[in-house]
Specification:
The protein is mainly beta. It has two domains: 45 residues, no CATH class; 55 residues, no CATH class. The chain is built from one helix and eight strands; from the N terminus they run ββββαββββ. It has a four-stranded mixed beta sheet with strand order 7-6-5-8, with no helix packed on it. A two-stranded antiparallel ribbon has the order 1-2. A hairpin with a 6-residue loop joins β3 and β4. It binds zinc ion (2 copies). One zinc ion (ZN) binds next to loops.
Length: 119
């Protein structure tokens, strides 16, 4: 094995960084779930309902991706119940923004300044 140093960036081989993590909304309790891989069946973290999943390629194909995003210029803010660690903890809410053009979900901090925001 060959050891190299951080100063040799130009000489290094390249690797692809694969984005992992998928989000899905539970139709029963509207909890936003995160999974690291797509499986045939997923379970809601909050209400433990089980759902069959659509293949990931299919979901991408049905998105309205006609416009070039980012920047996401038409976003809608959604407020979600955040996952509780125990039932004694108070419920926390978090806000997520949905791009109305491409259907992508982004953090509220990531909304472009020029975007038209609906809530
Ligand atoms: Zn649920
Ligand atoms: Zn977009």
């Amino acid at each position: 094995m060959l050891l190299n140093s951080k100063t040799d960036v130009e000489k290094m081989e390249h690797v692809d960084i694969i984005a992992s993590g998928y989000e899905w909304d539970c139709p029963n309790c509207e909890h936003l779930n995160l999974v690291i891989e797509v499986t045939d069946v997923v379970e809601c973290d909050e209400c433990h309902f089980l759902y069959a999943t659509n293949p990931a390629e299919h979901a991408v194909g049905t998105r309205k991706a006609a416009r070039a995003c980012p920047p996401h210029l038409h976003v809608k803010i959604h407020t979600k119940l955040y996952a509780r660690q125990t039932h004694d903890m108070p419920a926390e809410y978090t806000q997520k923004a949905e791009c109305l053009d491409c259907g992508e979900w982004l953090d509220v901090e990531d909304i472009p300044e020029q975007a038209e925001v609906k809530s």
